[in-house]
Structures are given as C-alpha cells and as structure tokens.
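User: Structure please.
Assistant: Input sequence and predicted structure:
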Amino acid sequence: MRSSIVRNKGTPLHYSMISIDEILKFIQDQTGLDSLESDSDIFELGIVGDDFDDLIGRFSEKYKVQMGSYLWYFHTDEEGQNIGGLFFKPPNKRVERIPITPRVLLDIANHGSWNIFYPKHRLPKYRIDTLINWIFATGVIFFFIYTLVR
C-alpha cells in the first residue's frame, strides 16, 4: 500500500512508501529474471528493445509515473535488425547509455515522474537509417513479386 500527496487537479506530486522489495518483485514478475539486485543494470541482464519498452510501460502504469521526459534511446537498443544502421547511426548509438536499475526505478516511482536528466545531445531531424530499411524492404518485396510473375 502506498500513499500519495495530491494537488488540486489530482496529479500526484510524489509517492511514498514504495519499497525496493516491491520494485524488485515487480521487475521479476514482469521479466522472469531470477537473480536481480537493487543495483543490477536491467539492460545488462538482457531486458532490451521491446521487452525493455514493455517493462517501462507497465512500470509507468502501475506506479502512475509521468513519462513526458523519457528518452528510450538513452537506455536500450532497438528491436530487430537495422540495415540502415550500418550506414547511419540510430538514436541509441548516438548517445551514451544511461543504466536503469531497480534503485533508479524506485526513485522514479517515489517521485511520480521520469526524473532522469539527460545530457545535451542532438539527433538528426529525420532517421535516414529507417528510410534505408524501408527502401531495402520494398526492394526485396518487389524482387520477390517480380520473380513470382516472371
């Protein structure tokens, strides 16, 4: 059970009484990880890509965390293959990764918002790596169709 301090409009200022044991149990229940310590880097334990995104999404729902400042590319890799990434770096390869641990999630849950301050960084306006992926996939599909109707 946790209590919260609430503003006039019902937005929590912060949560209290969330324990590290509760966060550890939540992560273990969501991921199936057996060995997990309060300072374990979730990424290093193999929770990456869509699995990481799902975990963080469920975490924000359960603990009512405002995620407006969350930048995924500082914490995890993208899911799947990125052929365009061979030529143009994806966002997660343009910044230094910031580890997410159960202790960090505890602080965020108790704060009520994603309170990680990111270093200044600059990303390109468009993701050329994903454009290359789409062009490549389209080319493969057209080649496949061409070989079928030929």
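The radius of gyration is 20 Å.
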